[in-house]
Amino acid sequence: SATQPQYIWFNGKLVPWQDAQVHVMSHALHYGSSVFEGVRAYDTPRGTCIFRLQEHTRRLFDSAKIYWMDVPYSESEVNEACRTVVRENGLKSGYLRPLAFVGNVGLGLHPPLDAKADLMVAALPWGAYLGEEGLKNGVDVCVTSWSRLAPNTIPTGAKAGGNYLSSQLISREAKRNGFAEGLALDVNGYLSEGAGENLFLVKNGVLFTPPATAAILPGITRDTIMTLARDLGYEVREQALPREALYVADEIFMTGTAAEVTPVRSVDRMKVGAGSRGPVTEQLQNAFFGLFNGQTEDKWGWLTPVND
Ligand code: PMP
């Protein structure tokens, strides 16, 4: 189609989109052995910039390390691959998908010790994950019947393909029941996160978010919001939160590279606050999107231009 990008960066080269193929015997397809990132590029007054590229690439390598996956590139090579694929596809803004995976190395569960991971980076146009309407008015979510992964089973701190079986169960149940997204509790019954988003609650002007021990992916947008909120003078607490905290919160929002900062207007058919986007959420959205329209000073060096 006209909007399909021309190239994918695959194992060190830009290849035509339709030629970026893998074998059906790829280990990752059978056993879930892939790690990936989701990254956004924004059209800013400084030109097209990738948001927090270094942190995303670092997390990709951390995820690979957890699984003993040998990615035969340096972090700076991956950063360059990301810049190249956005630039060469002529994208002003979009979503990047770096993915490292164990390829066609044989049917054994345990890959050969010298197996190298394959690596690809795709970049494509992508709008608001939960809709433009959702960004403004908030979305309706539910607490799913599925729990998040238990500690000491599959590590949620690694962003691995296999983790997203859990996320698919969570979001599909929610969507089948008419919700935009599902939230999950951890195995101890505390609030964890959404299928692909971290969770924030606002109560009496203080921000609360579940801690790393609540089976979350420690999101880069989560970190961004904690940093921006503290910069604006808010107190932010990472602490265990019970389910009922959702029902008495003044405001709730979810964060993620895809979801950006999406307000939640109801949980389990109960209104959150007034049932629309709250003022703290709106202020944090403005601070967040301000990084890309020039209204928020990038004090942290979070933007990497794709052009020199
Ligand atoms: N949790 C899960 C399960 C996710 O898939 C994502 C999206 N990567 C997030 C949280 C948010 O993370 P980030 O802000 O780094 O995109």
Description:
By secondary structure, the chain is an alpha+beta fold. It has helices at residues 27-31, 53-66, 75-88, 132-137, 164-176, 220-231, 244-247, 279-293; strands at residues 7-10, 13-16, 34-36, 39-44, 47-51, 94-101, 118-124, 139-147, 181-185, 191-194, 198-203, 206-209, 236-238, 251-256, 260-267, 270-271, 303-305. The strands form 2 sheets. Strands 8, 9, 10, 11, 12, 13, 14, 15 and 16 form a 9-stranded mixed β-sheet that branches. A hairpin with a 2-residue loop joins strand 15 (260-267) and strand 16 (270-271). The mean pLDDT is 97. 4'-deoxy-4'-aminopyridoxal-5'-phosphate binds next to helix 6 and strand 14.
C-alpha Rg (nearest Å):
19 Å
Structural class: alpha+beta
Count every helix, treating DSSP H or I runs of 4 or more residues as helices: 8
Order of helices and strands: EEHEEEHHEEHEHEEEEHEHEEEHE
Mean pLDDT: 97
How is the topology of this model organized?
Elements: E1 7-10, E2 13-16, H1 27-31, E3 34-36, E4 39-44, E5 47-51, H2 53-66, H3 75-88, E6 94-101, E7 118-124, H4 132-137, E8 139-147, H5 164-176, E9 181-185, E10 191-194, E11 198-203, E12 206-209, H6 220-231, E13 236-238, H7 244-247, E14 251-256, E15 260-267, E16 270-271, H8 279-293, E17 303-305
Parallel strand pairs: 8-9, 8-15, 12-13
Antiparallel strand pairs: 1-2, 1-7, 3-6, 4-5, 4-6, 5-17, 6-7, 9-10, 11-12, 11-14, 14-15, 15-16
The structure holds 4'-deoxy-4'-aminopyridoxal-5'-phosphate.
Residues 38, 167, 193, 196-198, 217, 219-222, 255-257 line the site of 4'-deoxy-4'-aminopyridoxal-5'-phosphate.
Brief sketch in words of this structure:
This protein has 308 residues and is of the alpha+beta class. The chain has helices spanning 27-31, 53-66, 75-88, 132-137, 164-176, 220-231, 244-247, 279-293, and strands at 7-10, 13-16, 34-36, 39-44, 47-51, 94-101, 118-124, 139-147, 181-185, 191-194, 198-203, 206-209, 236-238, 251-256, 260-267, 270-271, 303-305.
